[in-house]
Structure formats: structure tokens, C-alpha cells
Amino acid sequence: MKNLNFLLIPTAFFSCVLLCSCGDNDSNNTSNPQLTPATPGTLKTCDEITSQYSFKNTTITGSKIIAAGDVEYSSTETYHAPEHCLVTGYMNERIGTGIAGDTRYAIGFEMRLPTNWNGRFYYQANGGLDGSVAKAVGRLLFSGGSDSAALNEGFAVISSDMGHPSPTPLFGLDPQARLDYGYNAVADLTPMAKNIIEKAYGKQPDRSYFAGCSNGGRHTMVAAARYADMYDGFLVGNPGFNLPKAAVAQMYGIQEYSKLVEFDGADILTTLQTAITPEEFSLVSKKVLEQCDVLDGTSDGMIANTYACQKAFDLERDVPTCSNGRDNTCLTAKQKQVLGNIMSGPHNSQTGEAIYADFPYDAGIGSSGWSEWEYFMALNRDPGAVGFIFSTPPTPFNGESEQSSLEYVQSFSMDNDVQRIYGTDSIYSESAIDFMTPPHPTDLSVLKSRGAKMMVFHGTSDPVFSVNDTVNWYNGLTNANAGNAETFARLFLIPGMNHCGKGPTTDKFNMIDALVDWVEKGVEPKNITAAVRADNTELPSNWSKERTRTLCPYPKFAKYNGTGSIEDAASFSCVSPE
Hints:
Elements: E1 41-42, H1 49-52, E2 58-66, E3 69-72, E4 78-81, E5 84-95, E6 104-114, E7 116-117, E8 120-124, E9 156-160, H2 175-201, E10 207-213, H3 215-226, E11 233-237, H4 243-258, H5 268-272, H6 278-292, H7 306-312, H8 315-318, H9 333-344, H10 368-380, H11 382-390, H12 402-411, H13 432-436, H14 445-449, E12 453-459, H15 467-480, E13 489-494, H16 512-521, E14 528-531, E15 548-551, E16 557-560, E17 572-575
């Protein structure tokens, strides 16, 4: 690899988890085709795949039977798995170009093929900046428990590194690696994976599903827009489908918080976190609840009627302004201004044009997940993503320290430098907006016309990918389909949930089974039952550890019926906002 010492970006530094529309020509047709159910099969070959399999630009590095048992997905997650065939390999091996020359690139993958197969294929879209092949267990997003994996339910599963190695975000210097990460790896992996499935079982999958959260949710939305002919169902979680814009918004947050502190050589992150402390964020959460908790019919520490809350709560009026110093019972006038600016989203100061969506006030603003993304992730991840991956040309910097990241953020102009995410040149022919976001995101005519389905969920307290961005997309999708988007796509808001889980919320639910039933049986997902996680340390002490809630398809929300336990989803019904 060429000398990149001037970059000096450690592997761990950026390896944390990230994150004009076309109408439907058949928008008045609400009768979509009904796809038939998958039929099961049995594994016919495994060990021989290594020597016998042949596919364009693909190398199989191993294939072997794995006995039934536990698969360690990470240091904190283990999943049960049946007996299955593990296939590993890579595609499109090459040497990087330009400043990334001498670096080996390939699309690495692994597949896990159960001996007793349910006839379905599951694309496990991983998050962050990718760069490594996660275990292809097929995590069933937010189902909870060691049994909640697609592999364990009989799916054939693939996982990949999306075409680049660690350390990330250095791959952004290579133009093809950018495209692979954005969308192209899926295009190449999918037919190859289905071909391996055919080799292993004697037939291709009857039904194919794509699922992910965060950047994995972005991957899924991009696949729904680009590759709806390859997949039948899409499960989208907290999607960063405008990720380049969201990353800029994160940097804007650091710029704003920096106005409240003085960096005097002390630890950058520690100093930054004093701008608005956890106790002060909790104060805001408390005041939001005071105004909004009962808008769903009961006082339960959750805000289901999110958008009525935005009208009911006023930061300036409802949070006391400090008169004699900060004591966790008030915010200073300057803190209010900074928080208000951040919640409103970044704008071009000259034109007033919004750079990214605004954020709703919600109960989860007081949780640790909120401040972690506002400070640590925004300082230690987003500058590298913007500088290396999303800017054209790349604007690399020495990311060895938080000081250098802070300097990069502070030098970034919201009026002028944002144009880099829209830029192209002779080397980087597609802008970040082109290769990262779904093309024509409200045109899902291919998905709709063939009977495929999409389910989307988003936490209302997501501090990095605004739920308002997803709601705006869904409203646009509805308009593009004459009000009938719900016939093939549904959005579920998760009150209080931070980014892909946690917070004061019910974030344990199974949407993949509901998606399969919708795709293959025509059973509409009218609501989803969600529960609290027993290991969620941020649940209020007065909540039952057995609390359940009804998740409703937007724009409906769960309203208390007036009788029954507030800990039981059966006491709530989905109603339309007034």
C-alpha cells in the first residue's frame, strides 16, 4: 500500500457503527399481485461447493458443515443455529486505484445454508461503514433472544463486507469501493448467492428478503429502489437513507455544541459533553413529557402522538431559563438557542435552505443513546465519513486524534462545503447523494407491481437519522401512489426508541414474520405488538418489566382505550390523528 502516513487514522477510530420524486405510473391500481408461499428443501451438497462451484469473478474459500449449536455473532450476542453449511468467499478481487493504490479490494461474504431449508433467502444488511464480514446468522431485527435469527428459522443467509476492508473510512479514496458500499455490492452478490443456493438445494429461493437497521436500513431502502426485481420483502429499520446529509448534520451539531464550551487542552470529548449534560437532556425529556405524555390518552412515560407533541411543546416556554447559573433545573438562554438550532436541523445561512431534516422532541432525548450519538459518534465517526467517503474530491485529514476531527468539523462550512456531497469529477463519477441514496425514493413501482412488500420502522428519539426524514419520505410515497402506499409499504414509529433500539421504549418486536405473512399470504400488518427488553437499564423504574405496546402503521398511533392496564398492549388501539 502506498504511504498514507499523513492520514494516520486508527482502525478502531472509524469502525464504530455509523449511520424531486417520481410518481407511480400505476398509482390508482390498489390490487397488487399476491406472491405464493415458499416451499422447503433439503441441503444436497456442501463440502463439494469449494471445488465445484463456478461463478463470474467469484472465489469460494471454504464450504463445510457446521453442527447445530450456538454462533457467536459478537462479544455480546450469541444465536442458536441448526445444522448448516458455511460457505465463505469473495468477488471482484482487484487492486485499488489512485491514492488507494496497492490496496486489495474484494467483496467478501459468507453464507449459511441450513440443512433443513424453508425455501427463503435472507440478505443480512450490516451497519456502519461495513468493512468486515459479520456472521451470517440473519438477525431478526429486534425480535430478541438467542433463537431470533433467520438462520434458526430455516432461511439461507448472506452477509458481506460491502466491498472493502478495514480500516474504514479509507476505502472512500477508491472510487469503485464507494460504489460497492453504496449499492453495487448488492447487485453483484445477489445473483451469485442465489446461484449457490441453487447448487446447494437444487433450486433457487422461492422468496427473498432484505433487512437491516441504520446504514443497513439505508442498504435496504436502496435495494428496494434499485433491485426490487431480486427481492420480495424489505424490512427497513431507522434508515439513514440520506446518510451523507445526516453525517453533515452531525457535524453541525458539534459546531453548535462547541459554542457552549471552551477547549483549553483538556480532553476534547469530555469538554464537549459539558455543553448540555445528561442531567440537562433529562430535564428537557421531563418537560416534553409534561406537555405531551397524556396526548395518547394516558400518562405512561411514552409519547405515542408524536406530531401533536410538536405543537404542544415549546422549548423556550416549557423549559425554565437559568437566572442564577446551571443547576440541572434549567437551561441557559444560549443552551436553548443551540439545542433549538440542532433540533431544527442545519440550514444554509445565506439561502435558508435545509441541509437535512429537523428532529422531533421526544421522551428519549434524556437517554444515554441520545448523548452518545450527539457527542461521541458525531465527533469520532462522521468527520471521517464526510471527508473520505462522501466528499468529491475526498478531503482527507489526520484523524489520529479528536483534536484533528474537531478542527475538521470547525473548518467545514455549512454554506459552501456541503456541495461536496453533491460533487463529481473525472475520478469520482457519482456523487455521494447518487451512490448512497435511493434513486427516486418515492418511485417503488417495480416493487409494487410484482407484489413485493416493504415494512419500515423508526424510533421517534433517533438522534442521528431523523424520524421526520423517514416520515417525509413516506408522505411522499403516499402522494405518489394516490394515497394507496399502504397496500405495499407501511411505516411504524417506535415511541421513545433511540437509534436502532434502547431508550424508554418497547423495542422488542418481530416484524420479519409479519413481513413474510404479508408477502406470501396477503395478511396485512395492521399492528405489531412490542415489548420492553428486560435488560434495558434505561427503563423508568415505575414501568413493568412485562410492558407491551401496540405499534401502529403511520399516521395512526396507539391510544389508551380508557380501561385496562397501561402495561398491556390490549389496552391500546390504533387511531388516526385529529
